[in-house]
Design a protein that fits this description.
Helix content: 25-40%
Radius of gyration: 39 Å
Number of strands: 10
Distance between the termini: 55 Å
Shape: elongated
CATH architecture of the largest domain: 2-Layer Sandwich
Strand content: 25-35%
Number of helices: 7
CATH topology of the largest domain: Alpha-Beta Plaits
Structural class: alpha+beta
Oligomer: single chain
Number of domains: 3
Largest sheet: 4 strands, antiparallel
Length: 257
């Protein structure tokens, strides 16, 4: 017993700590933690490392809606040796087209100039003998036209195809974004994820807890089904607007117990 007292004497402990600096640092840390615990500044207890028990599934909602918007592209073009004259002619024709569209009932916000071009071209051999030394210019302007009432597609197509030297592309069909209920589609996609999660958790003999994370994988995926049966150059004016498929997809993480 006397030997133990001598071993744990202050001098012996001091020598031991000086000999092993790591031990000295460890003892200081223990003393500091003990002091903080006695003061009530920290609480000591059992430390456990628990792996988060979760389940992640993908849910989706798909629907098809009737197309309500028809979009056209009308291009006016021409050629002339007089660049200024050609430019003026295109401006007059473009203004006339816009006025006709406004009278038809198209709002100006649905008429957009998408392309303007003018460039020098080389005369074909057959014309060179008649226009020797003259520069030939080609110019054009394109307008995008949005019709928000597909019931009037036939009438607008007839109007556009009757115009002289106006090339028409369309119509192409789409939905009106303001008519899409994003919140409803998202809710249905989450419901689908819940159903899948319930099934999987039951198979694993676990209880499904609350949702802890929702991530939208995609906005809306459009797949157009509208068919154009006739367009441009005075073709048939029978059109089938068709439908557009909307898809909402989410990834949802649930807690498991």
């Amino acid at each position: 017993m006397t030997g133990l007292k001598r071993f744990f004497s202050v001098n012996s402990l001091t020598e031991l700590l000086n000999k092993y600096p790591v031990l000295k640092k460890a003892l200081l840390v223990i003393l500091a933690i003990s002091l903080l615990a006695n003061l009530g500044l920290i609480r000591l207890g059992t430390i456990k490392t628990v792996e988060e028990n979760t389940l992640t599934v993908v849910g989706s909602y798909t629907t098809e809606e009737s197309n309500k918007i028809a979009t056209y592209v009308a291009t006016i073009s021409g050629q002339d040796t007089d660049k200024e004259k050609l430019s003026d002619l295109l401006n007059v024709k473009s203004s006339q087209l816009i006025n006709d569209l406004k009278e038809f009932g198209i709002d100006m916000k649905d008429i957009e100039t998408t392309n303007n071009y003018i460039y020098e071209i080389e005369d074909p051999e057959v014309l060179k003998r008649y226009r020797v030394g003259q520069t030939v210019w080609e110019a054009g302007t394109s307008l995008e036209i949005i019709l928000r009432d597909v019931e009037k597609v036939s009438d607008l197509s007839t109007l556009l195809t009757s115009m002289d030297k106006v090339e028409i592309y369309g119509p192409t069909y789409s939905l009106d974004e303001k008519d899409q209920n994003q919140a409803f589609m998202l809710s249905r996609a989450v419901d689908d994820a819940k159903e899948k999660a319930r099934f999987v958790s039951k198979e694993q003999k676990k209880l499904l807890g609350k949702m802890i994370r929702i991530e939208e994988l995609s906005g809306q995926a459009f797949t157009a089904y509208g068919d154009v049966l006739g367009f441009g150059g005075g073709g048939s004016t029978d059109f089938a607007p068709g439908t557009t498929r909307l898809i909402k997809t989410v990834k949802v993480t649930f807690k498991l117990y």
